[in-house]
Amino acid sequence: MAAGVGKTYRMLQEGQQAALEGIDVVIGYLEPHDRPETAALAEGLEAVPHLRASLGGLELGEMDVDAVIARRPELALVDELAHTNMREARNAKRYEDIEEILEQGIDTTSTVNIQHLESLNDEVFELTGVRVRETFPDRILDDADEVVLVDLTPEALQARLRAGKVYEPSRVDVALEHFFRLENLSALRELVLRELAEDVEARRLTGVLDPLSQQAVAERIMVLVTPEPRSQRILRRAFRSGQRLGSEIDALWMRRPGAELGEQEAVSLAALRRLTAILGAHFIEVEGDNLPETIKRLVAERGSTYIFLGTPDESRRTEIVRGSLVSKLVRELPGIDIRIVADRALREEPRG
């Protein structure tokens, strides 16, 4: 649920146990965070030398993917899955390094916090007020052979923090006042427990249903997006629902004929395309001037069963004169579920 619960320690415990069982284990990358207990548990395990690079006068280490592959262990321990690599590294993200290692037939154990999961980015922001910049695609978690929850109560984690087992003493008070507040940790713990429960259920259904049965019960979601930052939130919410439904996702943007994008819109559109790719969804761009008709046509072509869209921002006058988009979709698409995604960050606090 957060830094300091003991993920790296657990990874090293499993590495040591594997070594006792005769498995060839190496440490591909370890981030001990100056924690003596963690460093001590790494003793006796071979560590592959790091790549070295300078940043702002500091010499930093990065995992040497080629060296790990050349060593060809049976199991590589690689800390901090969501880490962003330095520019000198071949891949931008550590999970991409891990994918290369896996492709060479080397098993890998890694660690990650729940707030780095891409589809939960908005939910974590709403819960904690912190926008996490380092994320990894949900497919990495889905493809894992095993997912282990390293659990700790919020109170116990705060106690570890105060004891200096997570951060150096000068950082403790600030951490406790911000990200490590009790309500934040409780919310994150609930989030990670829910995520693990859904992961277990998804794996159970995969084992119960044969591929043809899964295809027969599958849903398909269409998300209506525009070149605005808020569309990322709508797409993530649709993706979370899609995981529970076992559905494919299409993100549809209708460009008006001859319309030119402003600079900010172009940036938002590029970010939206990247997010669509990360989540494994399909981005569909079409040109047209009749959105309801375009949606109706593509729903039929794609076999969509759900439509997700953001809270309409149409003025009341426009709705009276022309009719709202939601009303038109309800009329034109009988049998299709339509979900309006609210912005939870705009909710008013209850009055005392």
What descriptors fit this protein?
five-stranded parallel sheet, 352 residues, four-stranded parallel sheet, alpha/beta
Describe this structure in words.
The chain is an alpha/beta fold. Helix content is 46%, strand content 15%. A hairpin with a 2-residue loop joins β3 and β4. The chain is elongated. About 2% of the residues have low confidence.
**Helical stretch count?**
15
Order of H and E elements = HEHEEEHEHEHHHHHHEHEHEHEHHE
Q: Largest beta sheet: what is the strand line-up?
A: 9-8-7-10-11
Give the beta-strand count: 11
Please indicate the percent range of residues in DSSP E strands (runs of 2 or more). 15-25%
Distance between the termini: 31 Å
Describe the secondary structure blueprint for this structure:
Blueprint: H1 7-20, E1 25-29, H2 36-41, E2 46-47, E3 51-55, E4 58-62, H3 65-71, E5 75-78, H4 94-103, E6 107-110, H5 121-128, H6 138-143, H7 154-162, H8 169-177, H9 182-208, H10 211-217, E7 220-224, H11 230-245, E8 248-255, H12 263-279, E9 282-287, H13 291-302, E10 306-310, H14 316-322, H15 325-332, E11 337-341
Parallel strand pairs: 1-2, 1-5, 5-6, 7-8, 7-10, 8-9, 10-11
Antiparallel strand pairs: 3-4
